[in-house]
């Protein structure tokens, strides 16, 4: 009987350790998404930032990636960067997407949607332009090729402000 109680105690203790460590890992994952965004924004402080929220299942996101690669390359020397936040719960889906349509810009994973919730994201893709002062200057839901000239005009206007 004593042996059985000892085994049961060890099992309960082991279960507690596993649950605690997985809760810690879960918390670390959530914090790391937010920390990753803060670090990326900090790295690009004083720049105009195109912050994009996307998911692998999003059709318009597939169209926006080549444009975001191009626009960052075109305006990088003027102090422009693209930072994207992926909202897939399964990182493998995002990885598959990125293998098909590579990103030359920063990609942050937010599987729990904490960052998206903070920014009150309503649909995919969603983007915002952040000025050199760190304030959100415009927001867009969706990506429309017919609006590319509008997006670029907004970027150029913000880049002109020193």
Please tell me how large the radius of gyration is.
21 Å
CATH topology: Glutaredoxin
Low-confidence stretches: 1-31
Number of helices: 5
Q: How many discrete structural domains? A: 1
Instruction: Tell me how many strands there are.
Output: 5
CATH superfamily (homologous) name: Glutaredoxin
Strand content: 15-25%
Task: Report the principal-axis shape.
Answer: globular
What is the share of helical residues? 40-55%
Description:
The protein has a single domain (2-160), classed as 3-Layer(aba) Sandwich (Glutaredoxin). The chain is 54% helix and 18% strand. The chain has helices spanning 2-43, 59-75, 91-100, 114-118, 148-160, and strands at 48-54, 80-86, 106-109, 126-130, 136-141. A 5-stranded mixed sheet has the order 3-2-1-4-5, with helices on both faces. The radius of gyration is 21 Å and the shape is globular.
Write the layout of secondary structure elements.
Elements: H1 2-43, E1 48-54, H2 59-75, E2 80-86, H3 91-100, E3 106-109, H4 114-118, E4 126-130, E5 136-141, H5 148-160
Parallel strand pairs: 1-2, 2-3
Antiparallel strand pairs: 1-4, 4-5
Search tags:
Glutaredoxin, alpha/beta, 54% helix, 162 residues
Quick structural gist:
With 162 residues, this protein is of the alpha/beta class. Helix content is 54%, strand content 18%.
